[in-house]
Amino acid sequence: MTRPPPTSEKVLCLQCLEPVAGADLAAHIARAHGAPPAPGPAGRAPERPRTTPELLQAAAMLAAGKDEEALAALEAAVERDPAVAHGWFQKGMLHLARHEWPDALLCLERAVQLDEMDPRAWVAKFYALERAGGRSAEAARCLIRAADLDPLFTQQWIAKRFTEDELRMLQRRYGDAGPS
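Predicted structure:
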């Protein structure tokens, strides 16, 4: 799970590509782009993901740097309960970390089917589509959906995963299609 950057960590605003302290991004968006970022999904209380023994085991294996064992535990988790979006999301994130784009996409597509209100799954799917290449229109839709759900989180997540040159390329590619 991605955490907001510490106050001293710089991120790039996806609208103007200015470096901004992570803690100041919301204020920067309001000041420089004329509108406060929308809050997360309206009326939706944060949900605690359903946990299974396999998900706990996967977390422990990831913390110990044992990717293969973590992947096996995640596969067991989604086999045990295929309706747990968090399990699919975590499995997709592990595939992203391993640069296994097609496997990541399969998992993240399932995660967004199960929980369409999770901006993490949408932005991770955008990332996987960008890295896999060739599906820019679908990637743009995922980015827009993530930004609609939680624009600040979306900007911070992307700013931490793309280089400044990649962000400039994304801005040129998506221009008006990106979050506003």
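Summary: Residues 67-80 form the longest helix (14 residues).
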